[in-house]
Specification:
Layout lengths: L7 H7 L1 H15 L10 E5 L2 H15 L5 E5 L11 E6 L5 H13 L3 E5 L6 H4 L2 E4 L12 H16 L10 H11 L6 H4 L3 E6 L3 H16 L3 E5 L15 E6 L6 H7 L3 E3 L11 H18 L22
Helix pairs in contact: 1-11, 2-6, 2-7, 3-6, 3-9, 7-11, 9-11
Length: 317
């Protein structure tokens, strides 16, 4: 049975609308450290931070702000030239990120790190630092820090006229998030045995993150794909008692495909009236992960097999 006392993770999830607004208010003090229009930028991170990097990269490039790639820090292509490397690291201690920042400095490439904790090695590893300590978490599983990073980066694109057409303002997203933290989750979703998260463009990174959150907190069976690729094999996993969850606008015909195999479709973050911003829809997935974890007797604040940061032995402490 779920505890009568909300988990720390649940409390942190509920603070996201306020965190996003605070990030937008803090933008003037961070703008100089963020990618400049026209720069060729690589955005890197590990785990959740990598998925936020993917979403931002698509937003930035499709909004005309500059060529942008996203990489897991461990997979950064050596020798490829960029005008700036932007690293996302909640803890500021992740080995792969610190190693990459060191190599970038040796190569003379400007670097910026966004972190929750400046009192860590990232303080000296990056040329510029953006500190979002108000969004830091006690929980091992990332929720509000990751979304607040993306909120700050969206606010920066919005301020520079680089937000892609059709993407809501950050204020609108925060309003949607206020709904997302209070609306009841549907019984058919709470009782599902399997989830496939889908996205297109910048929302594919959100789909990946939703799947990861469910696996981390609840040990749930989840997968994530680009929406149009879902038909090319992955749809075979969908059926009665299984959910296809779409972030963003639903591709034509996909609802019929899910219905044909007997699955449940959730598409609450499209462009129609009453829909949520896709980032706010991610908040619902976070809440679902906590709800399923508690229903299974797991502690979402202490997920199995996870630590706050991955530090490789014999390297950065």
């Amino acid at each position: 049975m779920p505890s009568a006392t909300p988990s720390r993770t649940s409390v942190e999830i509920a603070t996201q609308p306020a965190c996003w607004r605070q990030a937008a208010r803090s933008l003037p003090s961070h703008s100089a450290a963020l990618p400049r229009r026209g720069e060729r930028v690589a955005v890197v991170g590990c785990g959740t931070s990598w998925f936020m990097a993917q979403s931002y990269a698509v937003l930035r490039e499709s909004g005309g702000h500059g060529e942008t790639d996203a990489f897991a820090a461990s997979e950064f292509p050596a020798g490829r030239r960029y005008d700036r490397i932007l690293a996302i690291t909640r803890s500021g201690t992740t080995t792969e990120v610190l190693d990459l920042l060191g190599r970038a400095r040796d190569a003379g490439v400007p670097t910026t790190a966004i972190t929750a904790d400046p009192a860590t090695p990232v303080m000296t590893a990056a040329d510029s630092l953006v500190v979002l300590d108000f969004a830091d978490e006690e929980s091992v599983v990332q929720t509000r820090f990751a979304t607040t990073v993306l909120a700050l980066l969206r606010a920066h694109l919005e301020a520079e006229g680089g937000l892609p057409a059709g993407v809501r303002t950050l204020d609108e997203a925060a309003q949607d998030a206020e709904r997302a933290v209070t609306e009841e989750l549907a019984p058919e979703v709470l009782g599902a045995e399997q989830f496939t998260f889908l996205g297109t463009g910048w929302t594919y990174g959100l789909a990946l993150e939703a799947g990861l959150k469910m696996r981390e907190a609840a040990g749930a069976w989840t997968e994530a794909y680009p929406a149009m690729e879902y038909r090319h094999g992955p749809i075979s996993i969908t059926g009665p008692g299984r959910v296809a969850w779409m972030f963003g606008s639903l591709p034509q015909g996909l609802a019929d495909d899910v219905a044909r195999v007997g699955g449940t479709l959730l598409d609450g973050s499209g462009t129609g009236a009453g829909t949520l911003d896709p980032l706010a829809d991610l908040v619902r997935a976070q809440r679902l992960a906590v709800a399923i974890a508690e229903a299974r007797g797991y502690d979402p604040d202490r997920p199995r097999n996870l630590t706050r940061s991955v530090v490789l032995e014999g390297r950065h402490a």
